[in-house]
Amino acid sequence: MNMHRRALLRTAAAAVITLAGCASAPTSYYRLAVVPGPVNAGVALRIAVRSINIPGYLDQNGIAKAGASYEFSTFPNDIWAEPLDSMLQDIAVQELSQRLPSSTVLASGGSIASASDLLIELNILRFDPDSSGQLTLNVQIALKSGHDYHILTVQTFTATATPGGPDVTSTVAAMSTLWGKFADQVAVLCAQQWAAQAQ
């Protein structure tokens, strides 16, 4: 092998090594899991879950992780599989359907349009970890009549959870647990409205 050919091979090998070093880590996609809860088969309502409002800082693909005080951080190369507000609405519909099996639960604004007895409106104030890693879910809930849209009740739900570890999987699992607990509370509110209508 002549000197020129060896020089070309060394240059090509160096380029390959350089490119390999510059390659970014693969992106991983995550979604919240549906968490089963207590079942109340005696509630027969047509329920619509409206689009969910989330804070601007959570309206992104990045998954929040613990950072320094006053700092918002996300996991590198780990992102949500779909927009967070849409995913929360989808999971809420599934979890309420499991908890209230005699009711019809739909996502308002989805491909299926149907009259409803009850409208659920949600305004998330916070759903991320603090500097210690503890997750906080803070949500305002409004239940409205599906017939004339008057407000039946407005409440605030707050709960915390500590992930099992600092990794993204533990964070998403803890968020799923918190959202499941929230669905428990919403199902109770729906049952209370059903009972009030029966009186």
Evaluate the radius of gyration. Answer: 23 Å
Average of pLDDT:
89
Major sheet strand order = 5-2-6-7-8
Largest sheet: 5 strands, mixed
β-sheet strand percentage: 25-35%
Low-confidence stretches: 15-20
| CATH hierarchy, class | Alpha Beta
Helix-residue proportion: 25-40%
> What is the name of the CATH topology?
Rossmann fold
In whole angstroms, the N-to-C terminal distance is 95 Å
Characterize the structure shown.
- This protein is an alpha/beta fold.
- It has a single domain, classed as 3-Layer(aba) Sandwich (Rossmann fold), CATH 3.40.50.10610.
- It is built from three helices and eight strands, in the order αββββαββββα.
- The strands form two sheets. It has a five-stranded mixed beta sheet, covered by helices on one side.
- Helix 2 crosses helix 3.
- About 3% of the residues have low confidence.
Please render the helix and strand layout as text.
Layout: H1 3-22, E1 28-30, E2 46-49, E3 62-65, E4 73-80, H2 84-99, E5 104-107, E6 118-129, E7 135-145, E8 151-161, H3 168-198
Helix pairs in contact: 2-3
Features:
alpha/beta, three-stranded mixed sheet, 29% strand
What is the gist of this entry?
The strands form two sheets. Strands 5-2-6-7-8 form a five-stranded mixed beta sheet, covered by helices on one side. The chain has a three-stranded mixed beta sheet with strand order 1-4-3, covered by helices on one side.
